[in-house]
Amino acid sequence: MHRQIASLSMATALLAAACSGAAIKNTDQKVPFSARSYPADAPASCPVDDAGVANLGFRRIVAIDEHTVRFELCAPDPAFLEKISLAPFVINDSGHLLTATADGSMNRNPIGTGPFYLESWADGSQIVLNRFNGYWGETAKSERLVFNWQQESAGRLVGLKAGTSDVISNIAPDDLAAAKDDPGIAVYPRIPVNTAWVEMNNTFKPFDDVRVRRAVGLAIDAQRITDNFYPEGSVPATHTVPCVIRLGCVGAPWPARNVDEAKRLLAEAGFPNGFETTLTLSDSVTGFTPQPIETATDIQAQLAEIGITAKIVTLDRTTFKSERKAGKLSGILYGGFNADYLEPSDFLKWLFVDVPRRFGTVDTSISAPINAAVLTADPARREAYYAQANDAIRNLVPLVPLVQASAIAAARSDITGFVASPLEYELAAPVSAPGRSTLVWTVADEPLGLWCADNGTLETAKVCIQVFEGLYGLKGGNAEAAPLLATKCEPSADGLTWTCALRTGVRFHNGESFDAGDVLDSFVAQWDCASPLHKGALSTFNYWHLLSPFLNEESCSKPG
Q: What is the pTM of this model?
């Protein structure tokens, strides 16, 4: 039985109690489950485009009965299951969610249904999880799971060699040979689901001329960059979206390097002797930029062959991302994107619809078929739309795809049960360290917190998915969406509703039973900016836009 929080007056009262020092777990009045919806009185208004066509969004979420939830959509969303499989959409206990967000303790006091629960968090040092023996599924192989962090790949590898770590996150290309030569270490290449590219903003000269942008694309040898600066398993990019993603590589592939044609285009555009520009990048190492300075230096050399003199400029990660998003960076930019879910819209809609200012003006020949594909359930029609969009990108060259990069995890060679996920959604429960009750996992950085809805970093997700579960989760070496807290979610014939049957017999770490109210409240906490639950360490809930606009968005900008 769970607390009902449909009423804001009840929520307000409970918040006041929590803030006054009342206990936050298992002491509040409980009421039997009752069917309810959000919004309770009428469906939310659907966003529409300029032509009056509905865009993605929620109309209503309904807890039909204790074990059934219905999501009513504004438009069909063929990637719905992949999206709700992500770590920000895990399910929290209703009562705990309300009280913990009220006093700010959600980040360090998580209550999930996963195979591990939080024992302790030593700031700057480690997170300790214990095995949850009341877990509904197969019990975790290890009694304890310890996460620690080390930013440098070489440092992570030292710990693995010394036996102080059992599993480590990504190995830099320079460290791969040492890992492979050690018989005590096993390496696990991941299927590449990211793309590195160079991009140009067409509001800045001379990149307002498509001939110049095409020349840049023809000047760069993607195979050379892949071979010299990216780890084993990486491949030259033929499209913006990685080919391992279904419908990602439709339409014509990117043309091969052609220096003579690049020079001809520059001359035709009025630059027979080339020009000077900048090549700007973040100084941070990522999965798609494993050696950013070295790679940028080689791109610089290749551009020089057609007369383009590019000065390398490095920015800190935050500045680079914010300035690029705002469309304030001129010249040529080196960066990329790692998939959040395995569907082309994750790349294409984000790039050319959600944050298009980075390219200046996005031509409708690119954006229109993307918008159509996102709302089309039929696979054949979606493929045609994506092919149209990819051909337009190839023709207009807002970006030049370079490499789809493989990230490589590593573990002690006696470890069993480890499966490398393309999205790095690796589960610890099946992993066993023979003769050791504690499994030690070293990642690149400290998580931001465990209010998973409000913390969008990969390091946060790695821990979240051990403690929490969603209706679906990304499982296996292909990161396919598979049922977790739902036994199934099925769309209606028109794609406008998804009905989820929930698993029975599931309990949270605090002993509370799982039901449809927990699902509704977990989603509403992100959806409604006016909800008292819409609070966290960041209070941005950045991943929600994948599913829907916020309700009462004006409240999101208000402090507190």
A: 0.84
